[in-house]
């Protein structure tokens, strides 16, 4: 089964009504004298998302905001959509190599590891069927190889956080239940080797889902070994905080996608009303965040882009995990821009990301020392330092 993808986001132009809670909050802020005033725009994200004073949202086509690489099917990779949450109309796109892998001498029975993937977009825009995310998933399925599950989640400000995290959690409940019997998964997926991944906001989501999964939530546990999370992967993770980092205070001159101002606006639209960037979803190490010290996190692969305004936050995340004694690998792409792995899905640098991801997946079940892979971006081609003398611990 091989189908062409559309280049349209899941969410088309529409207006939504506020929830009762939003109405109460907005009424409190506006005062009784404004009760009869017509709604006006209180937050405008490039005309694509307009939050009105009555809590309603006017949404346009966000595909215009992102460079959309031409869709190129990868020969030998099949994909299809399945619904994992009918009540909310949420789907998962399943990718798998058309040719089954040869049986190995291991315990996988010839089945493939599973890569769960969450798209980016500041929790406010983006869709699994947009070409940047679709293309990356095609490549990952082909080159790892793996069964890739690209998961749709509800977007803010219509559905403020932690709704997206709840959706990610619900997906794992589906995966260990009826989802495991889905024909492609039953045939090709080794659910005992499941990896949670994402880019940008999808990486933030991957972190929080991984924490829930490994914190005794009723998603995956020792009683139900059908699904086992073997690792998680954060690519250009979208973290925040009230206090500015060096990269945020003095952003690179050539920032091409995510600016500090855009990140701030995403958080205003996505976090619970009135929350600051130190909210635990934005800042996992903030004053109100639960410590990760006692969370039995699986091995982590953290990808950082040197030209990203979030560079310091991503590096700090990896360093903190290392100091907690977690198994973490860091792949640093010097000079790369935020989201390059999806905005330039056929680039040499993205090929290196997939190779780093492939090595991580292959060895994640075997505990290893925390290592750093530094990728220097230059022409001719990008080279990843692989020799032992070029590997060092995260500082």
UniProtKB/TrEMBL annotation:
Signal peptide: none annotated. Pfam families: Abhydrolase_3. Residues 1-32 are annotated as: Disordered. Residues 7-20 have a biased composition (Low complexity). GO terms for molecular function: hydrolase activity. Residues 115-340 form the Alpha/beta hydrolase fold-3 domain. PANTHER family: ARYLACETAMIDE DEACETYLASE, OS01G0153800 PROTEIN. This is Alpha/beta hydrolase fold-3 domain-containing protein. It comes from Oryza punctata (Red rice).
């Amino acid at each position: 089964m091989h189908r062409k993808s559309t280049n349209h986001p899941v969410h088309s132009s529409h207006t939504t009504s506020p929830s009762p809670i939003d109405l109460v909050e907005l009424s409190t802020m506006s005062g009784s004298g404004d009760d009869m005033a017509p709604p006006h725009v209180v937050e405008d994200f490039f005309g694509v998302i307009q939050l009105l004073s009555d809590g309603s949202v006017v949404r346009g086509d966000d595909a215009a905001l992102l460079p959309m690489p031409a869709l190129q099917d990868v020969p030998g990779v099949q994909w299809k959509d399945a619904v994992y949450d009918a009540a909310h109309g949420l789907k998962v796109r399943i990718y798998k190599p058309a040719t089954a892998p040869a049986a190995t001498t291991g315990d996988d029975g010839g089945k493939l590891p599973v890569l769960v993937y969450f798209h980016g977009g500041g929790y406010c825009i983006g869709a699994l069927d947009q070409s940047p995310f679709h293309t990356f998933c095609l490549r990952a399925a082909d080159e790892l190889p793996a069964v890739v599950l690209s998961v749709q989640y509800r977007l803010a400000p219509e559905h403020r956080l932690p709704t997206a995290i709840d959706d990610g959690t619900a997906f794992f409940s589906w995966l260990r239940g009826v989802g495991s019997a889905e024909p492609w998964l039953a045939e090709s997926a080794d659910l005992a080797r499941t990896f949670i991944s994402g880019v940008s906001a999808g990486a933030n989501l991957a972190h929080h889902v991984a924490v829930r999964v490994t914190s005794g939530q009723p998603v995956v546990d020792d009683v139900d070994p059908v699904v086992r999370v073997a690792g998680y992967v954060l690519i250009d993770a979208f973290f925040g905080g009230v206090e500015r980092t060096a990269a945020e205070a003095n952003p690179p001159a050539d920032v091409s996608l995510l600016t500090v101002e855009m990140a701030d606006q995403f958080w205003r639209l996505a976090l619970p009303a009135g929350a600051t960037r130190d909210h635990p979803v934005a800042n996992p190490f903030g004053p109100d965040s639960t410590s990760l010290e006692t969370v039995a996190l699986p091995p982590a692969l953290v990808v950082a882009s040197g030209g990203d305004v979030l560079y310091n936050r991503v590096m700090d995340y990896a360093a903190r995990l290392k100091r907690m004694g977690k198994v973490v690998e860091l792949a640093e792409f010097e000079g790369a821009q935020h989201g390059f792995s999806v905005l330039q899905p056929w680039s040499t640098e993205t090929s290196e990301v997939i190779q780093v991801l492939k090595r991580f997946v292959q060895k994640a079940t075997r505990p290893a020392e925390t290592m750093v892979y530094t990728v220097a971006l230059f022409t001719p081609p990008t080279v990843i330092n692989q020799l032992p003398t070029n590997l060092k611990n995260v500082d």
